[in-house]
Amino acid sequence: xxxxxxxxxxxxxxxxxxxxxxxxxxxxxxxxxxxxxxxxxxxxxxxxxxxxxxxxxxxxxxxxxxxxxxxxxxxxxxxxxxxxxxxxxxxxxxxxxxxxxxxxxxxxxxxxxxxxxxxxxxxxxxxxxxxxxxxxxxxxxxxxxxxxxxxxxxxxxxxxxxxxxxxxxxxxxxxxxxxxxxxxxxxxxxxxxxxxxxxxxxxxxxxxxxxxxxxxxxxxxxxxxxxxxxxxxxxxxxxxxxxxxxxxxxxxxxxxxxxxxxxxxxxxxxxxxxxxxxxxxxxxxxxxxxxxxxxxxxxxxxxxxxxxxxxxxxxxxxxxxxxxxxxxxxxxxxxx
Length: 336
Known about the structure:
Layout: H1 8-19, H2 43-46, H3 56-72, H4 79-89, H5 92-102, H6 114-126, H7 133-152, H8 168-181, H9 185-199, H10 219-230, H11 233-243, H12 267-289, H13 296-311, H14 319-322, H15 325-334
Helix pairs in contact: 1-3, 3-6, 5-7, 6-7, 6-8, 8-9, 8-10, 9-10, 10-12, 12-13, 12-15
């Protein structure tokens, strides 16, 4: 499978995949701390909205994908099923239980920052969709996570640069869309100032250690995409030149070579399919930020295409990829 645009056919295929797992409760990998025997509950009791898709964060970003697909193709074959899902799940009483879960002291670091960013990305996508009822229902939960960013970022002295869920650049990048969608200038300023504090002085990135064996993000490229999203273009382009000064020579070479995936039934190794798709997203977005006559633009566009072609054929199959990977395919195709 190859694609350069999100066609209705692809949208329906991806929607069917997500609709098949967002309410599939088991197998399930909870990120849950038990303070006592009363906390030993099922996933759907703990999280009545986002209990499916193997883990909470995958369920959240699968909802984001469904919202994006519905926005793009509101009359597609799967549209009625998506609306029925949202009407059943994105309701005030269920969202209130999700909020109450986060109020426990044991949940302070729950899904930081990956799930935080994805929940805010979902809230941004739901804003104004159909009559806006789903976005209004989710708004209290989104505000909980926005406040967690506000509380956490000032005390976070150092960024986290790994290629997995703990990457802080990814969290900032996704939260920026929520800040923009809600016209929260103060929040956007906090995100931008944090990004500059963490990454503003970075130069000549060697992409050392990429890819690691369970990466699904490029720590180098998601940092660059974070800065592209948060900086003004006139400031970003000089920063980008300093950060990846040898891009015109296709260096660091490791960033241009799609990752090899040897076993898609192994959840960690299967992350590398996600790495290819998330790199495709970042390369595409970075290419679009370069001037039309910039010699680096065709190089980065080609890197995006090759990574997309490497990842797209593996969206479905084993549940270890099926429960999450289509989301990153939509990012790669749409968010460029």
